[in-house]
Input
Amino acid sequence: MNSKQKILVIDDEEGIRDTLETILSLDGYDVTTAINGEEGIKSAEAHIPDLIICDIMMPIMDGYEVAKRVRENKEMVATPFLFLSAKASHLDFRKGLGAGADDYLIKPFRNEELLAAIEMRLKRVKSLTDGQKSLEDSINNAKHIQDVILPMDSALENQFKDHFKIYRPRDVISGDFYWLKERENETTFFAVADCTGHGVPGAMLSMVCYDKLNAVSAENRSISPGKLLTKVNGMIYDFMLANQKDIPIKDGMDIALCEFDSDKKSVVFSGAARPLYIITDQEL
Output
């Protein structure tokens, strides 16, 4: 129980509203009441309660419509919704749950049953919320790791004095990346990769590709861009199929790789499903 948790009671019977408000207030909840469905929707949208208790048979707007409207609101799509009604048939119960309710209690009700149902629903929401927060924290940590791995802006500035960068991941973490490698022969590799997947799966595949680019370029110091991509492609393919030969690979990696030689003022290009565009004097 949490004294800060807000419960909205929607019922056209004053006696029921007063009884519920007393029971719930004594148990530490912050209670708001509404006399019909229309007023209940207005109150819910204005205050976003932690849980809603709603009658079914009410004037102006019945409980089924209230449940539908609540579920259509993005801020309340997961808000626990309990029907409290005198309609007691099995079909009524099924219709209530089908309308979007999480639970269905019958009037007259026992205080213990009501409070137990409320506590269970609020605990479940808290568990889901905590799990969501943990997932979001993990994804944000993964983004930090990904940001650390990508070339620093200072490294790009050192290699390319006149440049700009547009890097806008669709999700928190990205399946796309860019890669920079200074070579002992005083040339520089630079790659831009586009993963066909997104989010966590795309980011994981991009990190595998990033690692293989580093490994192959370190072991083969004079390798050309074309041979580098061919080698990396084979390594990734072998890696993906090593222990999961029966599972198809759904995502791939498109990549453009250039080797820049500042002394010769030359560019050697190799691409996998990515072309190279050269613009000189504002002409393509």
About this structure: The chain has two domains: 6-134, 150-272. The helical segments are 14-26, 37-47, 63-72, 90-98, 111-149, 153-159, 199-219, 225-241.
